[in-house]
Amino acid sequence: MHRQEDPEFYFLATGIGSVPFLDIEGTCRRILETCPEMPYWPQFVQRSRLEDMIIQFSQGLPLLAVEGQSLVLTQGPMEKELVSFYERFLAEETETFPLSRECAPGLYDLTRLIEQARDQSGRFIKGQTVGPVTFAAAVKDRDGRSLFNYPDLLDACVKGLALKALWQVRKMGETGKNPVLFLDEPYLSGFGSAFTPVRREEVIALIGEVIGYLRERSDALIGIHCCGNTDWPMIAEAGPDIISFDAFSYMEHFLLFPDEIGKFIERGGAIAWGIIPTFGYTGAETVEGLFAGLQEGLKRIHRRGHDPGEIARRSILTPACGMGTMDPAAASRVLNMLPLLSKMCRESLGIGN
Fold it and tell me: What is the pTM of this model?
């Protein structure tokens, strides 16, 4: 499939995924108002355990079951289960790997509202899925061994996540907007420590398999979101179109690699700057203060000789991470700040909204 024509972002606003709200349609309408250029479907993690990102994307994958608040590996005839899975996978039976309305009502309501809307000026629609590394680390058997200990099943689950991602981007594409899909990889926070024993090459291979599968079958733009510090050159090497990070808390760490970041942008990559705090939100933050912090970070990349105009063209604004654990009133304020910050950034470039 062809790629989307050289997209221009210029600090348009979008979100990461999770929200603390319970009103499904009302939240989707609010997102359409605050992020009109790239609305995202919300994950209502306070509504149901099925919207936990590990559980949410597991439907249709082999030998997995929800027990309590967790997704676990079950005992069963693995060979039979894998044969059945690969028959569906090789036939690209995306309809057997959906995100159900019960698991993702925000996806269904957002796409419905977009299709009903008279104003179709926004160019993009954003979704998200759990990244394969985070999924493999989180899913364990009853003895505490992760999916990494079951290579045949790991391979099937990664392929299943890719097929489910394909279903999602096709669902979003029915709106007529250009799909953007973030692979959420919180497990990669602090990559390289004793707590992340997975090897760098394995991370690149697992994420790269999902990205490659989508690239061959869709024109979606694909991002990787990590809300902590990680090996950012490794993330770039995995091949995304967009790198999304917590710019409020980890700007200094991210800018340890200004040349790698600049080259990623010059190759056509984009950065989603998560400049509005979520976990560390105090209520004292101002749009002006966040704008100043973002500008200081951008200047450090500019000083290394990278074109400011090109970096602006390849920049997106988001909250630092999902808002699912925030107080609803605080999350509402974060949503309010997003379009104001986007407007301030665009006006500084001489671009009207």
Answer: 0.95
